[in-house]
Specification:
Mean pLDDT: 88
Radius of gyration: 24 Å
Shape: elongated
Order of helices and strands: HEEEEEEEEEEE
Strand order of the largest sheet: 3-2-1-5-6-7
Number of helices: 1
Strand content: 25-35%
Largest sheet: 6 strands, antiparallel
Low-confidence stretches: none
Length: about 170
Amino acid sequence: MRRTHSGFTLVELMIVVVVLAVIATVAIPNLRTIIQKSEIKDTSGAITSSMMLARTEAVTQGRSITVCITSSTSCSTSGTWEEGWIVLEPTTNTVIRRVPAQAEAVGVTVSDAVGRVIYSRDGAADFQEVDGDDITSGVKTFTIANNCWTKDLDITATGRVDASTNMTPSGGC
């Protein structure tokens, strides 16, 4: 009587392992790039949507709305955008949106040390330092970066947010 064996031979199993190793070698570096780009897009999107919400609320409610650095529920007098921010209706101290700290690998820097963006009822933006001192108006650039990629967001004095459509390599990879 003849026996039939079902299953894989050792040679077949070794071929599968080699093919999976080759695929992993190609896929893992690309996955890292995808994750790094995703972190930049997430932070960029959070800043853009917060600014757009503040501008819309200012026009809709007919009063000033502030976007400011904070790690709590009121505007901070020190800190950075990486710690998080809030969209705040300052006369009633109502927090409209709170955005928590961003991914550790992502840094956010702003031209002229902007710590607060205040949208007036006509949708225009005024800029202040973290401590509340006024900054001259004009375009302010939020630079979102990790060790591999950089993306800029420009906020104009009219309140418009203009995001660069592409990320640029920052040279760290």
